[in-house]
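Lab channel / #folding
Pinned by the channel admin:
"Please post every new chain as: sequence first, then the structure tokens as a reply. Keep commentary short and put observations after the output so the thread stays searchable."

First post following the new format, from NK:
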Amino acid sequence: MRIVITGAAGALGRELVAALAGEDVQALSHTALEVTDRRAVLDCLDSLRPDVVVHQAAWTDVDGCEREPDRAFRVNALGSLNVADASSHQGAHLLYLSSDLVFDGHKDGAYHEWDRTGPLQVYGRSKLAGEHACPPGSTIVRTSWLCGRRGRNMVRSVLALASEHETFGFVADQLGCPTMVGDLAGMIRHLIGERLPGIFHVTNQGEASRYELARAVMELAGHDPDRVHPIELAAYESAVASRPVNARLDNMALRLSGIGLLPPWRESLAHLVGELLGMREG
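Reply from TO:
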């Protein structure tokens, strides 16, 4: 397969390149392909002639999107429409990476793929617009709370805070599904290999609050988890955009399709923390 990855310079993009070893992968960073430029996107895919396009380029600053809604929709909605249109012109299968924030969080249980959407903030609305831009037959992957070896993510933040502060707090009254980008990249490889259409929720198994996740990171890193204290989502003063209290995703479509689910988040987190500590020591 010839596979084009947009937004490939980020943490997930780099994991995808590794997961797709052996394929003809064209990894395009933001500077290599500006998805808001329709002509540039059409010309790029016309020259590369991909079989598959993995579109994960996005503006993911949730609070920034709330401050600049036009920019959010330009990148996440219009940019996705450009990529979707160019993919269709090439007859390429499109996989679009979406978010748990397309839901409002009011449901009692975890959200499955057929639940009604209702984003609370500009970011979620712009990502949902990107979903709607995908042509029939596309694969849409919704995921949440990404953690990995690179980039800004909660696991790396907790390890940094542990070295800089005696105590620190994380939100305890919001539930979600932590997802390790290495595991996610492996599932994306499977989905594009099978050209599976439809929406798929892809997360590691199990749920947690950010407080529980932070405590688990501390324990795995050999720190006292009691150094982390709980705070309420309503008191999260730095947040401009609303976050759903319930951000849990049920991987129902994978389960019903007979596809093996990702490992429990605690199991994969242990591997990730070990890798990060090893990178520090190295």
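NK: Residues 54 and 168 are 37 Å apart (CA to CA).
TO: also worth noting, The first strand starts at residue 2 and ends at 6.
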